[in-house]
Amino acid sequence: MLVGAHVSAAKGVWNAPENAAALGLDTFQIFSRPPQGGPAPDLSTSHVVKFKAAMKKHGFKDFVIHAPYFTNLGSGNNRIYYGTVSVLRQELERGTLLGASFVMFHPGSLKDLGQKKGMRQVAEGVGRALEKYTGSTKLLVEISAGAGEIAGDSFSELAQILDFNKKYLGKTLGGICFDTQHAFASGYDLRTAESIEKVFKEFDKAIGLEYLKLIHCNDSKVDLGGRRDRHEHIGKGHIGEDGFLALAQYFKKKKLDNLAWILETKDDRTEDVAKLKTIKKKIG
């Protein structure tokens, strides 16, 4: 179990490893470009060298990149759709330059095209982003919180995206980023060992546990099935500390205890990190 968190890469990506080290993390996540829009900062050879030197200095072997929030493969607007395809490809290439293991993204909204056509376009968009891509950074599809007509808020929809892109799966398409808050808000109960067993039995049947590659570790401000994206600090939301401990125990049992757990809570995450480290110690 690797304890991680999203950290700032402001004023240069090379600052991120130091920010992660200050929190006592095992790994970390960044945006490589402004999440709300705007041009991606240059990644010159000197910038890459500086970043890798900072990784080595602070003892980090791995990190991940979150794609910007404006991506939407379900859009009926061609500028947004093809722009998203382009940005995902760019982020994969940037990740390869920096040495990131994964880039994860939110699939987008289906309100323009409807369920059937929209999901088909989302799946096709993933394929377009990966076409002729040969880099080392793999793409992950993140489960959504189910607010509105959002793509990827169920295991069946995630499976549809992966199944459509089987030729990339396990290669440049790594699999799924499982956000605990998003999943809980979409109706997947993570509060007890029994409910977690049931949830991941369903995940395994629909997708396959081998394609579970990353955990976004967030408690939930909304109750089970609340269908809103609202992160809360660990133990202060509706999942609770017992739920996260049970989740860690389940992953250990399934030999998935090498997964990175990335906190995305806002404000001070010192207490969140401490709680995850306590859980890590308990599971051994």
TrEMBL record:
Supply the Pfam families for this chain: AP_endonuc_2
Q: Which UniProt keywords apply?
A: DNA damage, DNA repair, Endonuclease, Hydrolase, Metal-binding, Nuclease, Zinc
SMART domains of this UniProt entry? AP2Ec
Positions binding Zn(2+) 3 in this chain are H182, D229, H231
Q: Which residues bind Zn(2+) 1?
A: H66, H106, E142
Q: How is the cofactor bound?
A: Binds 3 Zn(2+) ions.
EC top class, in one word?
A: hydrolase
Q: Is Cell division found in the keyword set?
A: no
GO BP, one annotated term:
base-excision repair
> According to its UniProt record, which reaction does this protein catalyse?
Endonucleolytic cleavage to 5'-phosphooligonucleotide end-products
Q: Which GO terms describe its molecular function?
A: deoxyribonuclease IV (phage-T4-induced) activity; DNA binding; DNA-(apurinic or apyrimidinic site) endonuclease activity; phosphoric diester hydrolase activity; zinc ion binding
Cofactor(s) listed:
Zn(2+)
InterPro entries xrefs: AP_endonuc_2, AP_endonuc_F2_Zn_BS, Xyl_isomerase-like_sf, Xyl_isomerase-like_TIM-brl
Key word Translocase present = no
Where's the Xylose isomerase-like TIM barrel domain? 18-271
EC number(s): the record gives: 3.1.21.2
Residues that coordinate or bind Zn(2+) 2: E142, D179, H216, E264
Tell me the protein family, please: Belongs to the AP endonuclease 2 family.
Q: What does this protein do?
A: Endonuclease IV plays a role in DNA repair. It cleaves phosphodiester bonds at apurinic or apyrimidinic (AP) sites, generating a 3'-hydroxyl group and a 5'-terminal sugar phosphate.
| Name assigned to this protein | Probable endonuclease 4
Species of origin? Candidatus Doudnabacteria bacterium RIFCSPHIGHO2_02_FULL_46_11
| Name of the gene | nfo
